[in-house]
Amino acid sequence: MNRTFWKEAVVYQIYPRSFQDSNGDGIGDLQGIISRLDYLQKLGVDVVWLSPVYKSPNDDNGYDISDYQDIMDEFGTLQDWEELLTGLHARGIKLMMDLVINHSSDEHPWFVESRSSKDNPYRDYYIWRPGGPDGERPNNWSSVFSGPAWELDETTGEYYLHLFSRKQPDLNWENPQLREELYKMITFWLDKGVDGLRMDVINMISKVEGLPSSHRDGLAPGELAWGGEYYMNGPRVHEFLHEMNDKVLSNYNIMTVGETPGATVEDAILYTDEERKELQMVFQFEHMDVDSGPDGKWDVAPWTLSKLRDILHKWQVGLADKGWNSLYLNNHDQPRMVSRFGDDGKYRVISAKMLATLLHTLKGTPYIYQGEEIGMTNVKFTAIEHYKDIEILNMYREKVTEGGADPNSVLNAIHIKGRDNARTPMQWDDSANAGFTEGEPWLKVNPNYKEINVEQALADSDSIFYYYQRLLALRKKNPIMAYGEYKLLLPEHEDIYAYTRTLDDEKWLVLLNFNEVPQTVDLSAELSKATELIIGNYPDDAPTRELLRPYEARVYRLK
Ligand code: TEU
Ligand code: CA
């Protein structure tokens, strides 16, 4: 079995704005991260994924880049970045940078040039189209952040495409000169010693020729519509990724993960089959829509374990032979997993450990999002003014301010699904602002920081932190966790997710109860072979092995 570091690694995602402030301006920064490297080493992570730290006007908190080769003023300098890289490498931790190359900031010099005139050499670095005879937009696509995906630019009287905010113009990947500029930029960072790349919405870089309007049924004239079918997993996306791999990525021993909203298992095999030389893994989103109704993310719907398990199982089986899974339930765009899939009340600690056991015993590379390891929860700000996320604020304006929707029901959806749930400052201790800043935090701290914080976790041998530390230590010693064959058990059980992992003559049994109600499992054949409880989230083994207590997770070695 050829062992690969990116299959065995555990990645820790840092959202720099909310991790640790070092200069009292209320915004996290690189020196703040440097001051916390011993904490990351203690947890045992192998890679740090750093959300964007490049120069940015922060319309979308760094996912709108105005200079790809310099550091955002609020975060520090290139020297600070070099110090961070050195500090990580000195602790045996690799650095994965976040590449946002589907779009740039509208303050990037390329766009400033591009918008200045129709014959500017940079015009075709972006996607410009004339309006219709009556000035209507080139098509009916909506932006992910509400409103249309086209902005009319007065200077040249044309529209430019922005799938996200109007300050995030889409780059034109059809332009080989633009692609070469991007490859040069990537080489700049890899030559500095970067060990990995996370590629933001990388499956959106190829748009269908002609940029056709969406024609779903019942659309009124001028009504906006989701155009994803015309730019997700588009016609040339694999060609572009293979070209990037051939020209740049293949020259380095690095880890790559593409963020691919809307990708299916079949798409993911094309992105991650090693023979195709594109990417090593992708972030799929199917399980992130398990609690969305027909009207999308803000149409909050109940989820079931059966639905979640069916999705995860499909991906485990689908990528068993070709390709590779990333494993996550949390990141800077998603609500906190213990609130969403566990119980952030009475069973917060137990259910957080159960979810961690899922992520670290399925087959794939596990990702930990900052604060997940201490069971940080969603937040319920009482007023929209306390929120900062452009996605939240644009949606609220469209639905409530302009659309007249009930503010409380929209706020309720924000409490459940809003991205700021994941962006409240990291909770380090019970001092003011949770030890995140001496100043005024850019986003309010979750009021539960007094009880939920790193200092408390490190002082409690039964904390979620030490459970994660044990899972990561187990992974380092047991190749079965990365490479073992996955096999589902109890496919119909409504509350239990049970599976085995097998590598050579070693076999583990994983039992997860997703309910606060105790369950009994009928797995006598497997349980009769259980020789050792490898890890569990209760202090002791259950009175009988068939019993699973509330949110209980147990991993047995089978003889
Ligand atoms: O996210 C892409 C994306 O689709 C997310 O916007 C996600 O679907 C949505 O936020 C769920 O509500 C990436 C980055 O992770 C995100 O932070 C950026 O806002 C976005 O791209 C644009 O760069
Ligand atoms: Ca700061």
UniProtKB/TrEMBL annotation:
<dbReference type="GO" id="GO:0004574">
    <property type="term" value="F:oligo-1,6-glucosidase activity"/>
</dbReference>
<comment type="similarity">
    <text>Belongs to the glycosyl hydrolase 13 family.</text>
</comment>
<dbReference type="GO" id="GO:0004556">
    <property type="term" value="F:alpha-amylase activity"/>
</dbReference>
<keyword id="KW-0326">Glycosidase</keyword>
<keyword id="KW-0378">Hydrolase</keyword>
<dbReference type="InterPro" id="IPR006047">
    <property type="entry name" value="GH13_cat_dom"/>
</dbReference>
<dbReference type="InterPro" id="IPR017853">
    <property type="entry name" value="GH"/>
</dbReference>
<feature type="domain" description="Glycosyl hydrolase family 13 catalytic">
    <location>
        <begin position="13"/>
        <end position="423"/>
    </location>
</feature>
<dbReference type="GO" id="GO:0005737">
    <property type="term" value="C:cytoplasm"/>
</dbReference>
<dbReference type="InterPro" id="IPR013780">
    <property type="entry name" value="Glyco_hydro_b"/>
</dbReference>
<dbReference type="Pfam" id="PF00128">
    <property type="entry name" value="Alpha-amylase"/>
</dbReference>
<dbReference type="InterPro" id="IPR032091">
    <property type="entry name" value="Malt_amylase-like_C"/>
</dbReference>
<keyword id="KW-0963">Cytoplasm</keyword>
<dbReference type="Pfam" id="PF16657">
    <property type="entry name" value="Malt_amylase_C"/>
</dbReference>
<dbReference type="GO" id="GO:0009313">
    <property type="term" value="P:oligosaccharide catabolic process"/>
</dbReference>
<dbReference type="InterPro" id="IPR045857">
    <property type="entry name" value="O16G_dom_2"/>
</dbReference>
<protein>
    <recommendedName>
        <fullName>oligo-1,6-glucosidase</fullName>
        <ecNumber>3.2.1.10</ecNumber>
    </recommendedName>
</protein>
